[in-house]
Amino acid sequence: MSMVSIFKQAHRIYSIFIILLFSLLFYPFYYLAAQNPGTYGLLNQMRKLNSRLCSFFIGAIFRFTFEEPLSDHQPYIYCSNHTSNLDIMILCTLARGRFHFMGKDELLKNPVLKIFFKTIDIPVNRESKISAFRAFKRAGENLEQGMSLIIFPEGKIDDGHYPPKLMPFKNGPFRLAIEKKIPIVAVSLTNIWKRMWDDGAKYGSTPGICIIYVHKPVLTTNLTINDSDELKDRIFELINSKLVDK
Question: How far apart are CA 225 and CA 240, in angstroms?
């Protein structure tokens, strides 16, 4: 094993330690804030702070480029590519106002994330139409109450391609955006896989700059359900246009 590989694996172990350490320190506050939907805003503020602290100590510098400033008072559906465990920290840092994630139901078993997916966030079994229906129904109700949704429309991190390729999107978030007349914010996590691909187990991780490109919100006010495939393709192309593949 080369010295570079040793360093990357050592950095991954250090990163896991930092993430677990801060999760443990924040857990009592998470637990208290998660008991009442009225304090979910505080729960989000704490995980924003946790994300910033973890990124600082592991040396992941988040550099955002915005095509247009985002509003703190407008709910959005944030759609992003997904190549790294760092992605959740990045989206926590990015999201404005009140927000929640939708993610695979396996996250209910994750020691760090399960407290969120048992409360504010929405787990979904993408192989079950009933589970997907219930998840998007709940997400729609949250959007109506002014809570933004963060979703990775690929559905999962694809472990079959390295460097990663953007995989086909699921339909759900685009139909939901049209039904609820919510703008979509396409987010290109351009080079995050270079810092840590997936969980870092195979190639380790490195400190460095994480470049995030936030596209101008795409309005859905004048769209109908018949436009959902076109909207999905448009968001796919926006995200893909800024990705780094080598």
Answer: 23
